[in-house]
Amino acid sequence: LKIQLTSSNNRELLGTSQRILITNKGSKGGYIGRTDSYKTVIVDEAPLGGFFQVEITHSKSTYLKGKIL
To answer: Which CATH architecture has domain 2-68?
Structure first.
């Protein structure tokens, strides 16, 4: 049930612009950022510690994917 709710909430963010802080390099590539509401967003390339505006392009059950604007 928790995964269904999270997945539904994540889908609502598709196409929106979110501010993220890049916190880690991903183990499978890309960089991991967090929104102001602590949602996980994966982007292709970004320096650690930077804040970026991203467009949410994909929604998964436990994370989002985005591109830097």
So the answer is: Beta Barrel (2.40)
Q: For 3-11, which contacts have Cβ atoms below 8 Å and span 24 or more sequence positions?
A: 3/61, 3/62, 6/61, 6/62, 7/59, 7/60, 7/61, 10/39, 10/59, 10/60, 10/61, 10/63, 10/64, 11/59
CA distance 69 to 66: 9
CA separation for the pair 34, 51 (Å, rounded) = 9
| Domain extents in the chain | 2-68
pLDDT at res. 46 = 94
- Dihedral angle sign, alpha carbons of residues 62, 21, 26, 16: positive
Residues (pLDDT < 70) of the chain are 1-6
Q: Do the beta carbons of residue 48 and residue 25 sit within 8 Å? A: yes
- The one-letter code for the residue type at 58 is H
